[in-house]
Amino acid sequence: MTLPQSTRVEFDLPEYSVRRRYQDFDWLRNKLEESQPTHLIPPLPEKFVVKGVVDRFSEEFVETRRKALDKFLKRITDHPVLSFNEHVNVFLTAKDLNAYKKQGIALLTRVGESVKHVTGGYKLRSRPLEFAAIGDYLDTFALKLGTIDRIAQRIIKEEIEYLVELREYGPVYSTWSALEGELAEPLEGVSACIGNCSTALEELTDDITEEFLPVLREYILYSDSMKSVLKKRDQVQAEYEAKLEAVALRKEDRPKVPADVEKCQDRVECFNADLKADMERWQSSKRHDFRQLLVGLADKNIQYYEKCLMAWESVIPLLQEKQETK
């Protein structure tokens, strides 16, 4: 795929054309999580978007996956910090990415190394109110989207079953028309009408499967990613609180705050600032994406019902003509 890139001095070309597999994107995300622990790393699309409904080998699924991976990469390259990460540079420019994977290049930041080695021995007393509010919001947000996702998948399954029935239902009128004289034309009209309704329903189902559900799943995973960063922040804060307590106990012996405590405090402040900035950026992106998503969903449903209405209205004149000739 062609990977777009902004015109920055560290890149030689405005865009790069390199071949990347799903596991390459997974490698990039893992490296970003390691080297940028204080930032929200966008989620990768799941390998199976709609289990039991979408064929993962179909062209539609491949195209849906491609769009989702493009979106993932765009979120990375648009980020004011992540876009400068050396792993992103390697991902976009390396002709042979496997060579870098085998090398296991160590690009962990000091903050990343510190967070990686934080043990579970520290227990946070309580989150600051603003971060507790973020945690509560993420829990509720993921719950609501999960419910919508499950219902939407049931609706799609029922629509597909209904579509199968429609495709069997329409031809019956056509074969019946061969036995009739005066009713032949109206019956053929009904058969064609049901065929048009079937096509419209198939298009609606495809749109929901390929456009609506992936966005829901992305933001459910996005909330999980944000919760992960929030937990890392809690771990660092708990470590900082434990170190402060230890210093307080031996205050007489060590009147000055040790350097490791100050470094831990810096990490907490770094987490707080980065998490709040990323949360604000995420909220802005969410508002934009869901506004587009819901408008598109409304338009697709309107188009579906308009097509069905036109199909059935086309049958009425045929029936009225037969009444007038009697």
UniProtKB/TrEMBL annotation:
GO terms for molecular function: phosphatidylinositol binding. GO terms for biological process: autophagy of mitochondrion; endocytic recycling; piecemeal microautophagy of the nucleus; protein transport; reticulophagy. One of its GO terms (cellular component) is phagophore assembly site. SUPFAM superfamilies: BAR/IMD domain-like (SSF103657), PX domain (SSF64268). Keywords: Protein transport, Transport. InterPro entries: AH/BAR_dom_sf, BAR_dom, PX_dom, PX_dom_sf. Residues 1-99 form the PX domain. Belongs to the sorting nexin family. This is Sorting nexin-30.
